[in-house]
Amino acid sequence: MLCCGTEARARASAAALSRIGRRAAALGKSAPDDPALAGLLVQADVAYVAAMDDEDLPALARIAEQAGAAGTVLALDADALAPDDAVALADIVFFDEAAFRCRFDASPGPAALRRALALGPHTVMVTLEGAGAMAACAASFAQQSAMRPGRTEAFHAAFLDAWLDGVALDEALMRAGALAGQSGAGGRLR
Question: Which of 65, 106, 116, 181 has the highest local Cβ count within 10 Å?
Fold first, then answer.
């Protein structure tokens, strides 16, 4: 897994992903201009990019182009300011509930997640403020309300791990909640 964005968030995401058995590398904002990026993407399962805004869109487009050429999934940890073009470039987009409400002027739910999907990503996942999360793709919608996501980086990493394994969205949310809620989040749930 390849991580870009703020240094602290990238390091935390890379650490969480490493603990569950996916290759992780933390990169700073200069990552798209790094000549080694294409080589890293070939070795990665997922390119994980944190909070991109309009200024970062050219960098995200370069990452998306290189990720696509390498057959690497592009995951975007979006905030309320993520432009439509950024959301459209990603294969999977993560929002927290506050950012989703602000971004789409709606509470997360099946219809609102379909609006987010219409921008172009394959899957959209929202962590809920109280407890739980929901996810949608073209074929399904799932919600887990009885679990606590724990640290966002660990939750996203565990969800991506399950998603990459091809499990159904409800199972991916369950695995993510169980693994992220564990202290230390070590090992993969099978």
Answer: 116
Sorted by sequence, the CB contacts under 8 Å of residue 179 that are 6+ apart come out as: 20, 154, 158, 161, 185, 187, 188, 189
pLDDT confidence of residue 190? 34
- DSSP state letters, 114-175: HHHHTTS-SEEEEE-SSS-EEEEETTEEEEE-SS---SHHHHHHHHHHHHHTT--HHHHHHH
Order the strands of the 123-127 sheet from edge to edge. Answer: 25-26, 2-4, 46-50, 73-77, 92-96, 123-127, 133-137, 140-144
Query: Phi-psi region for residue 93, left (φ > 0), alpha (ψ -120 to 50) or beta?
Result: beta
**Distances in Å between the alpha carbon of 109 and those of 21, 130, 166?**
31, 15, 23
Nearest CA among 59, 67, 3, 58 for reference residue 38 = 67
Write out pLDDT tens, residues 155-182: 888 888 888 889 999 999 988 888 766 6
Residue corresponding to tokens 């909640």? 177
pLDDT tens for residues 44-68?
777 777 766 677 788 788 888 888 8
